Amino acid sequence: MDLAHRDQLLKDSIHFVGNNEVEGIRVSSAWAREQHIYFVAQFSKECKSHILDSTGTRAAFTFDTKPHEKIVVRVGISATSIEGARKNLEVEGPHWNFDKYLSDAKSTWETALSKIEIEDENKDKKSIFYTALYHSMMAPNTFSDVDGKYRGMDHKIHESDQTTYTVFSLWDTFRAAHPLYTIIEQKKTNEFINTFLNQYQQGGELPIWELAANYTGCMIGYHSVPVICGCLC
């Protein structure tokens, strides 16, 4: 486990909980100038040993294993707290059956991609279409915890009964992706707009290129406005 990887660390911690769990904090600065990630990771088998390096930012784990034995790792993350990460893990990762997670993921994507059905004898065209549809569903990402708590643009913890989202690359998405969402993701579109309004109230402006409760200041324009107006028409 390497918390020092990638961007500048502002705050970090790794804490071992018993012999099969580790929790911690990673606050970093890069494109998002203050990005908070809290995590809880659990192993399906107890560690034989675990160590931290001298910086406290890297951890290593060893296990007694038989040939071809597999160890499953469940990880919960949150932008609010370690407690939030633990709650997310309990709800979203409640078991150790990897094949069931795989099956559930396939079923979820099958349902999502079947929102639009096309017929074409050319399999390449169908593959291109559904790959593009899949890409349109990669973001925005759920940002709130299972209990409704989320980190606001003021970096205070707020709570909502609606899902809060992050990763709004609106300069890229206002022309086509968001109009598509008004057709195939109407409930989420309302939640996107409520997220915009909360970000305005908490940070003083509508999002331009929002990432992890940060205004990145990337790209020109104010493209949350046409997304909102497009839903009012």
Enumerate how many helices there are, as a single number: 7
Kindly provide the name of the CATH class of the largest domain.
Answer: Mainly Alpha
Q: Order of strands across the widest beta sheet?
A: 1-2-3-6
Q: How much beta, percentage-wise?
A: 15-25%
Assign an overall shape: globular
Do you know the CATH topology of the largest domain? Glutathione S-transferase Yfyf (Class Pi), Chain A, domain 2
Rg result? 20 Å
| Share of helical residues | 25-40%
Overall structural domain count: 3
Characterization of this structure:
The protein is α+β, with helices and mostly antiparallel strands and 233 residues long. The chain folds into three domains: 8-96, no CATH class; 97-138; 140-232, Glutathione S-transferase Yfyf (Class Pi), Chain A, domain 2 (Up-down Bundle), CATH 1.20.1050.60. The protein has helices at residues 82-92, 98-113, 123-136, 170-173, 177-184, 186-203, 224-232; strands spanning 8-16, 21-29, 35-43, 49-52, 59-62, 73-78, 141-142, 149-151, 157-159, 165-166, 168-169, 209-210. A four-stranded antiparallel sheet has the order 1-2-3-6. Strands 4-5 form a two-stranded antiparallel ribbon. Strands 7-10 form a two-stranded antiparallel ribbon. Strand 1 and strand 2 form a beta hairpin. It is globular and about 60 Å long. The model has no long low-confidence stretch (mean pLDDT 95).
